Amino acid sequence: MHSLYNLASGPLAWVAFLLFFGGSVYRIVRMLVLVAQKENFIFTYMSWRYSLRSILHWITPFATVNWRRQPVLTVVTFAFHICLLAAPIFLMAHVMLWEESFGLSWWTLPDAVADWMTVIVVLGAIYFLVRRLTQPEVKFVTSASDFVILAIVVAPFITGFLAYHQWFSYPLMMSLHVLAGDIMLAAIPFTRLSHMILSPFTRAYMGSEFGAVRHARDW
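The structure assignment produced for this chain is given below.
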């Protein structure tokens, strides 16, 4: 079991970070190159003002018409994503690892708060799973890969929760937690999880087109 943990927290972790950063840069550069080759005119009306206006509206709960039309989905979506990002970044155990490895540290969440954030992520994942299975308009565009991605996202939180509370075998849960984190990090640039990288560009494009060309709001 120690060998699995050492592998996941050593070589596989470095591979995951390289794939994440390298893949992210590749996706962004490739997107910009394709735009330059096929639709270069887009750059002529890109606007910081309208880009930021659109991004800020869409990351603000209930600021857009679509967010207001689906209040339950809005609350779950924002709670899920906030906890998904904040819990790993500000978890005390994770920050301590950064401090021990690279001498970097920052503010941390109380363990109880991180615990509840983990529960919110798991419950949110269950909500999205049920929604994909029951909502006709969502079910229609759902494929097997969507369920795999959902499992990839929730696995680090479930295994981390089990390891923290020392349920089942702690060495096994801890090893699986690190391995699941590696898989998730590496998968981000190459799956639909890449929306966390590319969505600001999409919103900037939409905001600029609607604001600078159509003189209308995109929300």
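Interim note for the steering committee: The two ends are 51 Å apart (CA to CA). DSSP finds eleven helices and no strands in the chain.
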